[in-house]
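Onboarding guide, step 5: your first structure request.
Type a short instruction followed by the sequence, for example:

Predict the 3D structure of this protein.
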Amino acid sequence: MNNKVYILDDRALIYISGEDSKEFLQNLISNDIKKVNERRSIFSSLFTPQGKFLYEFIIIKYQSGFFIDCEKSQQESLLNQLSIYKLRSKIQIQNLSDKFILAALSYKKFMSFENVEDIEGFTINIDDDLFLLDPRNKKLGARLIIHSQNFFSLLKKKNLLISELRDYYRFSHELGIVPKNLNKLQNKLFGIECNYEELNGIDFKKGCYVGQENTARIKLKNKLSKRLLPVNLINGKLNIDDRIYHNEIEIGKVLIEDEYPFALIKYLDENFNQKNEFKTKNAILKINQPDWIKI
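The system replies with structure tokens like these:
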């Protein structure tokens, strides 16, 4: 189990470099780029000016710039968005997905490496390949960003076995962290409703960024009443935007309907209890509230 490695072929790698790269990212993202260095990576996101979700990604220091590890389905749109914000900033934005392999391995395997620390986001560079403990939740294990030509020699050296990506997806879903289909969330909910505070993706002490005003208002005025939570389908079929009910009382809406479904849930509503079964028009389901989300 601990020797499994999952090739994340649904992920893409954007590289931002140049003398303004740090300031450029700091003005956009929900986390603090000042936290990022050769030994620490972060999880972050990009919101609309109203604070709605657009993109999420992991940021890793690499050479003189920063890697942006994002879902491949969001890559082209994210590149375009970054180019819009670029204006006169002295930065270069590149797609380096074809030069590296992104992969994931277990927490225990990562901790067996030399000179690592048990800290989410902890990063080491070995022969210009990057290894980092997932900055969202260390139960997700570690991320690898490896030069393509080095990948198979690493498998042999570390005794790693390529495994089915769906197993990694399934585990991520069970943990309560969206594994894919992030485009289905765009403009559907506030970024803070994606549980980014608990996933170490929002810094409330940094300065302004896109969407900061509404994000801070929801937090400071204790207005967070809905959260993105994983759905376990018991039977039937889910559809996007299906309303979810308990005893005819609506408590949420399906946002991702496929193999790893998620819904936006009124988690503080008295009609919500994860022990209950819920209904949509064509399905019966349960909703899991991860233990890392505290009420």
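Each response can be followed by summary notes, for example: DSSP finds six helices and 17 strands in the chain.
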